[in-house]
Amino acid sequence: MPVPDTDRTVADAIDRVLEAEHDAAAAIATAEAAARAAMEAAREERRRILERARTRISRLHEGAAAQLATSLERLDHTVEAAARAAAVSPDVTAAVLATVAARLTSEAPP
Can you tell me the distance from the alpha carbon of 92 to that of 48, in angstroms, rounded to the nearest whole number? Predict the structure, then answer.
């Protein structure tokens, strides 16, 4: 039995709609896959940036710690030298005090 022309037209239209739906579903699936890939690439880039930042911060911290240690060591040496300089023998201290006292009590200008 031959198919009437109207039925054939309707069947063709339904086929075109189904094909369009299939194409749209495939396009959506492709777009979703591309979006997932782009998001994963962005996450990976974020991880790389974070790791690079942590490495840089570590290096800066190590450098600052070394610089601080050097400064503290220099300060310790300065304090030790000042302590040695201040630790004058009692005889020298007495002589210096006698000289200062003599200058302060003399009438002649220094």
Answer: 67
